Amino acid sequence: MFTGIIEEKGRVSAFTQGTKSWLLKLTAKAALKGVAHGDSIAVNGCCLTVTQFDTVTGTIEFDVLEETKRLTSFSVLKTGSAVNLERSLRFDGKIGGHFVTGHIDGLGVIEIFEKRGKDYYMRVRALQGSGRYLVHKGSIAIDGISLTVAETEGDTLAVWLIPTTIDVTNLSEKRAGDPVNLEFDLLGKYVEKLAAFRD
C-alpha cells in the first residue's frame, strides 16, 4: 500500500530482457534507506518487488513481468528515463495523499501539458469507458503521484500541478503525447463492484 506522495525521482540505468523476466535497474537514494530484499516499491505507481540492491553504488533492481511491461508506461522506459519512487506505507508514517495500491488500471495519454500562470495544467485521456471512475475533486494516481481531479469530461481528466510537484517527479520530463500509468481510486472500484451485485 502506498500514498502517492513521491519520495524521489530515480533514473533507469538498465532495462533488459533476462532469461526469466525483464530486469529493471535504477539509481536511487531515498528508496534505498532501510531497504530489504522482497520490499515493495512503487515505480511510476507500479508496485514492484526488490530483488537486488547495492547501497554503495546506489542501485536497486526489480524483475518485471512481460505483461507489466506491455500494459504500463514501462514499455517506453529507456536508459536515463526518470521514474517516480515511493516506498510502501509504514504504520508509523504519514498519509499525505490517498490510498494507492500500486496496481495500474491502465494507460492514459497526456493531451495538454502547459504552464498557466505559476502553476501547470495537465489533461489526460484515460482508457475508453473509464470515465465512470473520474470524480470532480476526487483522487487519482498518475505515474504514482496522488493528484486531485480538477475537471472531467467523458474519459478525460485534468489536474493542476504546483511547481514543487513538477520539480520532484518525472513530470518535469513529460510532454503531450506521452503515456502515463493510471490508478483510479480504490473506493470507487469497490462501490461499483458492490452495486453490481445488488442489481
In brief:
It is built from three helices and 13 strands; from the N terminus they run E-E-E-E-E-H-E-E-E-E-E-E-E-H-E-H. The protein has helices at residues 66-71, 163-168, 186-198, and strands spanning 8-17, 22-27, 40-43, 46-54, 59-64, 82-87, 106-116, 119-125, 139-142, 145-148, 151-153, 156-161, 179-184.
Explain the overall architecture.
This protein is mostly beta strands and 199 residues long. The protein folds into two domains: 8-87, Elongation Factor Tu (Ef-tu), domain 3, CATH 2.40.30; 106-198, Elongation Factor Tu (Ef-tu), domain 3. Helices cover 13% and strands 41% of the residues. The chain starts with 7 loop residues before the first strand and ends with a helix.
Distance between the termini: 30 Å
| Mean pLDDT rating | 94
Helical proportion, percent range? 10-25%
**Ranges with pLDDT <50 over ≥5 residues?**
none
Task: Please outline the helices and strands.
Layout: E1 8-17, E2 22-27, E3 40-43, E4 46-54, E5 59-64, H1 66-71, E6 82-87, E7 106-116, E8 119-125, E9 139-142, E10 145-148, E11 151-153, E12 156-161, H2 163-168, E13 179-184, H3 186-198
Antiparallel strand pairs: 1-2, 1-6, 2-5, 3-4, 3-6, 4-5, 7-8, 7-13, 8-12, 9-10, 9-13, 11-12
